[in-house]
Amino acid sequence: MVHHARTHSNLPVRIREAFTLVELLVVIAIIGTLVGLLLPAVQSAREAGRRNSCINNQNQLGKAVIAFDGQRQFIPGWRNKHPNAQLGLGDMSSTNDGNKDDSMQYGAVSWPVMILPNLERRDVYKLWENSNSATGAITSNAPYMSIFTCPTSPADSQGEPTLSYAGNIGMGVVNGLQFKNDGVMMDLLGKTGSCNPARNNLDVISSGDGTTMTLLFSEKCGASYSPQSNYDVAPRAATTGGYTFGPGTSWTSQQNGPIPCFGVPSTGTAYGTVSNGKMINSVALANDGYYAMPSANHPGGVAATFCDSHTIFLKDTIDSRVYCQLLTPNTTSGAGQMVNVISGFNGLKLLSEADFQ
Question: What pTM, to 2 d.p., does this model score?
Answer without folding.
Answer: 0.80
